[in-house]
Amino acid sequence: MWPLYAAGFTTAFGAHGIAANLGGFSEDAVTSLLVLGGLLALYDGAEVILKPVFGTLADRIGAKPVLVAGLACFAAASALYVIAGGPGWLWAARLGQGAAASAFSPAASSLVARLHPAARRGRAFGSYGFFKSIGYTLGPLLGGVLVWAGGLDLLFLVLACCGAAVAGWAALAVPAVPPLPRSRQTLADLARRLADRSFLAPTGALAAATAALSVGVGFLPVSGAAAGLGTVATGAAVSVLAATAAVVQPRAGRALDDGRLTARTGITAGLLVTAAGLGCAALPGLLGILLAAALIGAGTGVITPLGFAALAAATPEERMGQTMGAAELGRELGDAGGPLLVAGVATLAGLTSGYLALALLLGAGGAAALAARSRAGS
Question: Among candidates 285, 173, 178, 164, which has minimal Cα distance to 226?
Answer without folding.
Answer: 285
